[in-house]
Every structure is written in structure tokens, then in C-alpha cells.
Design a protein that fits this description.
single chain; 985 residues; Leucine-rich repeat, LRR (right-handed beta-alpha superhelix); Phosphorylase Kinase, domain 1; 23-stranded mixed beta sheet; globular; leucine-rich repeat; Protein kinase domain-containing protein; protein serine/threonine kinase activity; membrane
Length: 985
């Protein structure tokens, strides 16, 4: 009995000891986890105070974002995703959490490099660092049991490490949305458990390894938005579990593999924006689970098969921008789930299937730019969901079906350039959601002015080049109308005064009609009107004097009417008005002395009884009448005031010069002047400048206008600067002695703005010339950094350039230009702010690829034309192109612009009729799914196209551009989401 009691005591003692050890272990673990997490908290910025309850008054397992195992204090999960938390580095202390299985830091603002020891925490099963700002390369190492690894949408660079193939337990791998380079290794096939595989949105090259076919568990392959080349491996057809295959925006060639017909579980097949050829294999139509098929923007050809009827689950069918021929398959009308059908820009012929829409669920139909004939089917809107109908550039005929008049879901209608005829159905002008309606270039007729228009959403209306007659509609039932084009019809009667209530109107075109009566003064109420064309009518009376006050009017054409009287003396005083045509009327008297008339061409005033004081207009000189004595008195008084003003100006100028300039006169061959801070005068010497400009290692850039060198003053703690060595300007090996050029430098020395590189001084001799600029930290061109920038960084650059343009336009004469607004010339500092390098020019023309259309077409010896164009488009056109490049990632000479002559035509085409993600820069594709960011991107492209319009007078001013950008800027907020679908514009 005593022995038994002894044994029991020993067991109890052992149990107590083991329990004590375990409690000590767990307590120690909790204490360690506690310290580790508090250390992490102290290293980050938490603006929303999400981590505020991470303190000693709360139990560790009750902290926000923390999950513990059962009732223990063992931290197994850390999830602080989407909390706007930032930090300059990833805290390696988190890797010491002993039992951590899940770490989710996604959708925050973390930056810096991912630590090398990230893969040393073997307890991890889930690691998500996506949608942050991490840089550097992906660390080596591996965790065998890790199931999810998501580093997407950061700024990681370098090649994908081979160690990735050692993550044998991975089911989900996402490295997309970075700037990774190199090829996809064949060893990727070792990831036998992988189900989700995406490397999209990088800069990967080479082919798609056929070894990928060994990964039988794959359900999702997303390799789009790279530079992959070669043919698509046939072996992919053996991946029977595959549900989503996305290879878009690459350089893949060859045909679509027929083996794809074996992918019985495939729901999404995206192959658009490649260089694929051949026809669509019939086997594709065996994919009965297919929901979306997009092979657009390739070089596919052949006729479309009626076998498409087998795709009964198909919702989206995109074949646009290929070379398909033949008829549209009749069987498409029997796909009950079909929502989006886009076949535009092919060579399709025949009629539109007459049952199309009757049994479908159509929302978008785009058949434009084909060779289609016949009539519009009656049942297109049977679903009641059709909102986009695009049929332009075909040979369609007949009238608009009455059924479309009851299609209340319609929003965007483009039917221009066909052979349509007949009258508009009365209900068609009462569609409540239509914001864009273009019926121009057809044979429509009838009196539309007698109908009551009720289109409250209407922003753009074009009925140009038809056969409408009768009175103009008095109203269109919309306060949002921005563009109204009723030109080249047979309208008669007067211009309704109600058009003055169109407060958003930017363009009004009523030319080539039979309008009569006076021009309503109420049109001057359209404060946003940029272009007014009411030429070639029978209008009478005078030009309303109120037109002189229209703030942004850039172009006004009143030619070919019966207008009379004198021209209002203040007309053209607003700087924006640069193009006026008043020819072939009955005006008399002299031309106003305002800017718009100073350099007016003779063709714009011919056919009147006018006189002028310059030879450019071609008008006879006006007779001078004697001025009364009181006028002589006023003139004398003004002369006295002017003399006093001049004296004061001279005194101020001398004082200013003494403050700004220091000339070095101790060298007989050089003239050196500085502007601005005293430290530059004292530190930078002639020797510093010449020394910097003689060392090849100091070269920053080379261009047509000379070489840029980085320099540093030899003085203690000397400042850094940039030397711009000017190329010869006289063609005889010498620098220009033109005093106008060097005096222009004086103006540049006065330019002070955050986004303008400061000119510190000039240095010149008889044969050489240097400009000395401030040095911007990093001094990287926009071209060098653009590819890796997210949307916020791109938006910041556009805003900065816009501010600089507005400043230069508002504060300085047109002799101070913004320089060449190109990705090569704009400097990006360490803070991400763009800096322009202004220049002095005797004309407004650019010799770069960014030159405006009028630069290329006009005679460059015509100084008057040059001055006029310089004032109208000083940097605005270039800024528009720059915005397009920033938004799309395309260059002005990009080989992928297709049939379009230049990037502007390409962008205009894409904006009107393409998916947003067919023209957006791949690295920011993920951000267009956010409502606010999507709106900002689309609106900025819209502004870019306004800036690059072919008519220089219709381009907005720098002030207008900046106001618009500020409005766009105000629509965004920080939020993240990721969807792999296309967005329809």
C-alpha cells in the first residue's frame, strides 16, 4: 500500500511538472508574441488607428487583426489588410511569431524591400503582401508547406528566383502587377499542387513553357500583359481542370491550338492583343461551359462558324479588330445568355441576323467598321437591357425601328456614316438615359423641331450631314449637352435663344443650313463654349457685343451670311479667341485692334466693306480723322504718366539687376552671370562649370539641343548643379550673338516654380555657351521611371506638369515656352514631382515628334502665323500627347499603333470605341476596376484628346486644363479591389 501511494505521488509530481513546463512555454510564447507585435506597431504609421487597442489593457487575442489558436495565447493569424497602414520596411520581427500561419498585409502602403528571411518562418501557410509599394527583388528561400503566396501589384523587379519552384505545397501563386523580367522557367512544372498561377502585368519575355501542362491541378492561368512570344503550346489543352486562361497583351504568334477544345471546364478564354493568325478552330465550339471568349486585336481570319450555337453559356463574345470575313452567324441569335457582342473592325458582310436580340440578353452590340448591309433588326432591344448600340461605318439602310424608341436602357448610340433614311421615331427623342447620340452622315429627313425632345442625359448630339428640315429644336431636354452638331442639313428659321441655357456647351455647329434672323445674344451665356460655327446660312443683323465677353471661346466662324454693321470693338480681347472668320458678309468700318484681329488672314475678312491698319489682312487703310482738343490733353497726360512710370521702372530694374546678377569680369573670354540665391554666386566658379562640361562621366543626357552634365562646386559643401552645353546656333561653329536669345535668358532667370527647373546662370564666350541649372535629386527622366509607376504617381506627374504650364502661361510672355514636353525631357525628382526645363524660342514650332499638326503644315517662314499658333497651342498639344503616353504606356512612335498614323489618332479611336483595358497602361490595369480611379483615368484621357484636337483654336487654355485636372483629382479616394474582367467604355 505504501508503495502504491509512493507511485501516485510521483505521477502527480510529474504531471504538475509537465503542466508547469507547458504553462511556462505558452506564457513565454505569449510574452514573446506580445513584444513582437508591439515592436511591429511602433514601426508603422497607422492613420486610422486600427492598432489602437494593441496595448496591455487588452488581451493579446482580442487585438484587432489577431487570431489565436483556440483558448491559448498562440498567435496564428495576423490580418491588417486594407487599413492604409504604411511603413518604410517589412518588420522582420513578425517572422519570429512561433505559431503564425497567416500573414495578410495586403492593400496598404508598405514600402521598401521584402526581407531576405521572409521565407524562414516555416509555420506559414498564407502570405499576402499584395497591393503595396514593395521594391527590390523577390528573396530566395522557400517554405514547403506554404499554400498561398501573393506578392502582386507592388514594384518588385529582377527575375523570378528558381527557389519559387521549391514551394511544393503552393496552391495559389500571384506575382502579377510588378516589373519582373526574364523568362518563365521550365522548372515551374514542379509545383504540382498549384491551382491559381498568375504572372500578369510584368515584363517577362520568352515563350510559355510547354512543361506547364504537367500541372494538372491548374484552374487559373493568367500570364497577360507581358512580352511573351512564340506559339501557344498545344500541351495546355491537356489541363482538364482549367477554368480561366488569360494570355492577353503579349506577342504570341501562330494559331489558336485546336487542343483547347479539350478544356471542358474552361469558362474564360482571353487571347486578345497578340499576333495570332489563322481561323478559330471548330474545336473551340465544343467548350460548352465557356462564358467569355475574347480573341480580339489579332490577325485572325476566315469565316465565323455556325457551330457557335453550341456555346449556350456564352455571355461575352469579342472578335473585333481582326480580318474575319463572311456573314455574321445566324446561330448567334440563339445564344440565350449572350450579353456583349463586339465584332467591329473586321470585313464582315451581309445583313445583321434578323432574330438577333430576340432571344439574347444583349447589353452591348458593336458591329461598326464592317461591310454590313440591310436593315436594323426589330428585336435588338428585346431584353430591355441594351445600353450600347454601335453600328457606324457600314452600308446599313432603312429607318430606325420603332422598337428602339421604347428601348429605355439605351445610353450610347453611334450609327453615323451609313445609308439610313426616313424620319426619327417620335419616341426615339425621348430616351431618358442616352448621353451620346451620333446619326451623322446618313439620309435621315423630316422636321425634328416639331418634336418635343426629352433626353435629360444627353451630352453629345450629332445629326450633321443629313436632310432634316424645318425649324431647329428649341430644346433637347438636357442641361448636360456639351457638343451639338446640326450642320449640313436644311434647317430654316432662327437660332433658338434657348440655346443660351446650355451652360455646359463646348461646341455648337449649325453651319451650312438655311437659318435666318439675328444671332441671339443669349448664346453668350454659354460660358464654356469653345467653338461656334454658324457659317453658310442667311443670318442678318450685327454681331452681338456680348460675344466679346465669352471667356473661353477659341474659334468663331460667321462667314457666308448677310450680317452687317460694325464689328464690336472689344471682340477678340479675350486671349482664348484666336480664330475668327467673318468673310462674305456686309460688315463695314475698321477691324478691332484686339489680339484676334491683329494677325487675321485676308481670307477671313474678304467680301466685306472693311478697312484695316496692317498689310496682313489685305484691307485698305482706314482714313484718319482729326482728334478733338480734349483728346490731345488726355494724350499729353498719358505721356507724362508713362514717362514717370518708365523712370520708376528703370530704377527698379537697376535695383533688381544688382540683387540678381553677378558678372565675372576677371576673364577676358567669358561672360558669367548668376540669378537667384547668393550661395550660387559665391560657390560656383567658372572652373567648376568648365570642369563639369569636360568629363564624360558627368554626362546626364544628350539631345539635339546639346549635352547635359552634372557638376559640383569645389567649395566646401559645394552645391550640385547641371551644365547644359549649347550646340552651335549659327551654323559656323559659333554660338548665337542674338541679343534677343540672351535677353530671353533673363526671363528664365526669373522663373520660380516647384515644377520648373531653376536657371541659376549663364556662361558664354564667342564660341561656347552654357546654361547652369539647379540639380534635381536623382535627375531621372520620365521615360526612365514611367513603366514602374502606379496610378497615384502618374496622376501626381500630370498635375505637376499642368501647374507648371498654367504658371508659365499666366506669368510670362509667349517667349518663355515650357520646353519640349516629352518623356525624355521631363525630370522626375526623388519626391515624384515632375520638373520642366523652360526654353526661349523665336517661334512656337517644335521640331520634335510632338509637333502640332499646324506646325507641320504651315509655312515656317510666316512669322505672323507662327506667333498666332504659338499663342494658341503653347505646350497644350504636347501636354495632351504626354498625358496619352502616361495613361497608355505607348510611345509616339510605338510600332503597335496599328493602322493609325499617330498616337493621337490611335488614342481617339480607342477612347471612343474600345475597352478601357485595351488602351490603359498594363501596370495600372488593376486600378481601373476601382470606380473613382476608373473615372479619373477616363476623364483624363478625355482631356488629353481635347488638348490634341486638330483645330488649334479648340484646344483649351492652360488655366482650363488645370481647373479640369483639379476637378478630376477631387473625384478619387483610396480604395482597392481586384477583378480580372474587361471594362467596357
Amino acid at each position: 500500500m505504501a508503495v502504491k501511494l509512493s507511485l501516485v505521488r510521483e505521477k502527480i509530481t510529474c504531471l504538475i511538472l509537465v503542466t508547469s513546463i507547458m504553462l511556462s512555454f505558452y506564457t513565454s510564447s505569449a510574452i514573446n508574441d506580445y513584444d513582437i507585435l508591439l515592436s511591429f506597431k511602433s514601426s508603422v504609421n497607422d492613420p486610422f488607428r486600427y492598432l489602437s487597442n494593441w496595448n496591455s489593457s487588452n488581451s493579446l487575442c482580442n487585438w484587432n487583426g489577431i487570431t489565436c489558436r483556440n483558448s491559448t495565447q498562440q498567435v496564428t493569424k495576423l490580418d491588417i489588410s486594407s487599413k492604409n497602414i504604411s511603413g518604410v520596411h517589412f518588420s522582420t520581427s513578425l517572422l519570429n511569431l512561433q505559431f503564425i500561419e497567416t500573414v495578410d498585409l495586403s492593400n496598404n502602403q508598405f514600402s521598401g524591400k521584402i526581407p531576405e528571411k521572409i521565407f524562414s518562418c516555416f509555420s506559414l501557410r498564407y502570405l499576402n503582401l499584395s497591393n503595396n509599394n514593395f521594391t527590390g527583388s523577390i528573396p530566395n528561400g522557400f517554405i514547403p508547406n506554404l499554400e498561398t503566396l501573393d506578392f502582386s501589384n507592388n514594384m518588385l523587379s529582377g527575375e523570378i528566383p528558381d527557389d519559387i519552384t521549391l514551394f511544393s505545397g503552393l496552391r495559389y501563386l500571384d506575382l502579377g502587377g510588378n516589373v519582373l523580367e526574364g523568362e518563365i522557367t521550365k522548372k515551374i512544372s514542379s509545383l504540382q499542387n498549384l491551382e491559381y498561377f498568375t504572372l500578369a502585368g510584368n515584363q517577362l519575355t520568352g515563350g510559355i513553357p510547354k512543361e506547364i501542362s504537367v500541372m494538372k491541378n491548374l484552374k487559373w492561368i493568367y500570364l497577360g500583359y507581358n512580352n511573351l512570344s512564340g506559339e501557344i503550346p498545344e500541351e495546355i489543352g491537356s489541363l482538364s481542370s482549367l477554368s480561366h486562361l488569360d494570355l492577353v497583351y503579349n506577342k504570341l504568334t501562330g494559331t489558336i491550338p485546336s487542343s483547347f477544345g479539350n478544356l471542358s471546364n474552361l469558362h474564360y478564354l482571353f487571347l486578345y492583343q497578340n499576333k495570332l493568325t489563322g481561323s478559330i478552330p471548330d474545336s473551340i465550339f465544343n467548350l460548352r461551359n465557356l462564358i467569355s471568349l475574347d480573341v480580339s486585336d489579332n490577325f485572325l481570319s476566315g469565316e465565323l462558324s455556325e457551330l457557335v450555337i453550341q456555346l449556350q453559356n456564352l455571355e461575352i463574345f469579342h472578335l473585333f479588330s481582326n480580318n474575319f470575313t463572311g456573314r455574321i452567324p445566324r446561330s448567334l441569335a440563339r445564344l440565350r445568355n449572350l450579353k456583349v457582342l463586339q465584332l467591329w473592325s473586321n470585313k464582315l458582310s451581309g445583313d445583321i441576323p434578323q432574330d438577333l436580340g430576340k432571344f439574347n440578353n444583349l447589353t452591348v452590340l458593336d458591329l461598326s467598321t464592317n461591310n454590313l448591309t440591310g436593315k436594323i433588326p426589330e428585336g435588338l432591344c428585346s431584353s430591355g437591357s441594351l445600353y450600347k448600340l454601335i453600328l457606324f461605318k457600314n452600308s446599313l439602310e432603312g429607318g430606325i425601328p420603332k422598337s428602339l424608341g421604347s428601348c429605355k436602357s439605351l445610353q450610347r448610340i453611334r450609327m453615323q456614316n451609313n445609308l439610313f433614311s426616313g424620319e426619327l421615331p417620335s419616341e426615339f427623342v425621348k430616351l431618358p438615359l442616352v448621353y451620346f447620340l451620333d446619326l451623322s452622315g446618313n439620309h435621315f429627313s423630316g422636321k425634328i423641331g416639331e418634336e418635343k425632345w426629352e433626353m435629360p442625359s444627353l451630352e453629345m448630339l450629332s445629326l450633321a450631314s443629313n436632310k432634316f428640315h424645318g425649324k431647329l429644336p428649341y430644346s433637347f431636354g438636357s442641361k448636360k449637352l456639351q457638343s451639338l452638331d446640326l450642320s449640313e442639313n436644311h434647317f430654316s428659321g432662327g437660332i433658338p435663344s434657348g440655346y443660351g441655357r446650355l451652360s455646359e456647351l463646348v461646341q455648337l455647329k449649325l453651319n451650312q443650313n438655311q437659318l435666318s434672323g439675328m444671332i441671339p445674344a443669349e448664346i453668350s451665356f454659354c460660358k464654356k463654349l469653345v467653338k461656334l460655327d454658324i457659317s453658310q446660312n442667311h443670318l442678318t443683323g450685327q454681331i452681338p457685343v456680348e460675344f466679346s465677353e465669352m471667356p473661353v471661346l477659341g474659334s468663331m466662324d460667321l462667314s457666308g451670311n448677310d450680317l452687317s454693321g460694325e464689328i464690336p470693338p472689344d471682340l477678340g480681347k479675350v486671349e482664348s479667341l484666336v480664330q475668327i472668320n467673318i468673310s462674305h458678309n456686309h460688315f463695314h468700318g475698321g477691324l478691332p485692334s484686339t489680339g484676334a484681329f491683329v494677325a487675321i488672314n485676308s481670307s477671313a475678312v474678304i467680301g466685306n466693306d472693311l478697312c484695316g491698319s496692317n498689310s496682313i489682312s489685305g484691307l485698305p487703310a482706314c482714313k484718319v480723322t482729326k482728334k478733338p482738343i480734349w483728346w490731345l490733353f488726355i494724350t499729353s497726360l498719358l505721356v507724362v504718366v508713362a514717362v514717370l512710370g518708365l523712370a520708376i521702372s528703370i530704377i527698379l530694374f537697376i535695383k533688381r539687376r544688382n540683387e540678381m546678377e553677378l558678372s565675372i569680369i576677371d576673364d577676358p573670354y567669358w561672360n558669367l552671370k548668376f540669378y537667384g540665391p547668393e550661395k550660387h554666386r559665391k560657390m560656383i566658379t567658372l572652373e567648376d562649370i568648365l570642369s563639369a562640361a569636360t568629363k564624360e562621366d558627368n554626362v546626364i543626357s544628350r539631345g539635339k539641343d546639346g549635352v547635359m552634365y552634372k557638376g559640383k562646386a569645389a567649395a566646401l559643401n559645394g552645391v550640385q548643379f547641371v551644365v547644359h552645353e549649347l550646340k552651335e546656333m549659327n551654323g559656323n561653329g559659333t554660338i548665337s550673338t542674338d541679343t534677343g536669345f540672351w535677353k530671353g535668358m533673363e526671363n528664365l532667370g526669373k522663373v520660380k516654380h516647384q515644377n520648373v527647373i531653376k536657371l541659376l546662370g549663364i556662361c558664354r564666350s564667342e564660341k561656347d555657351g552654357f546654361l547652369i541649372y539647379e540639380y534635381i535629386n536623382s535627375w531621372k527622366s520620365l521615360r526612365d521611371v514611367l513603366a514602374g509607376l502606379n496610378w497615384n504617381a502618374r496622376r501626381k506627374i500630370v498635375m505637376g506638369i499642368g501647374k507648371a504650364l498654367k504658371f508659365l502661361h499666366g506669368k510670362f510672355s509667349h517667349s518663355v515656352l515650357a520646353g519640349v514636353l516629352s518623356t525624355e525631357k521631363i525630370v522626375i525628382g526623388e519626391d515624384g514631382e515632375p520638373c520642366l526645363r523652360p526654353k526661349i524660342s523665336n517661334n512656337g514650332f517644335s521640331s520634335s515628334s510632338y509637333a502640332t499638326p499646324e506646325d507641320k503644315e504651315n509655312n515656317k517662314d510666316d512669322e505672323t502665323t507662327e506667333d498666332k499658333l504659338q499663342q494658341s497651342s503653347n505646350g497644350i498639344y504636347e501636354f495632351g500627347i504626354l498625358m496619352i503616353e502616361i495613361l497608355t504606356g505607348k510611345g509616339i512612335t510605338d510600332a503597335e499603333l496599328g493602322m493609325h498614323d499617330n498616337i493621337v489618332e490611335w488614342a481617339r479611336y480607342c477612347y471612343s470605341d474600345c475597352h478601357v483595358d485595351t488602351w490603359i497602361e498594363p501596370s495600372i490595369k488593376g486600378e481601373i476596376m476601382l470606380k473613382q480611379q476608373h473615372h479619373q483615368i477616363v476623364e483624363m484621357m478625355k482631356l488629353a484628346l481635347q488638348c490634341t484636337t486638330g483645330d488649334p483654336t479648340a484646344r483649351p487654355s492652360a488655366s482650363y486644363v488645370m481647373r479640369t485636372l483639379e476637378t478630376i483629382e477631387g473625384t478619387g479616394y483610396s480604395c482597392t479591389s481586384r477583378l480580372n474582367v474587361k471594362v467596357v467604355s
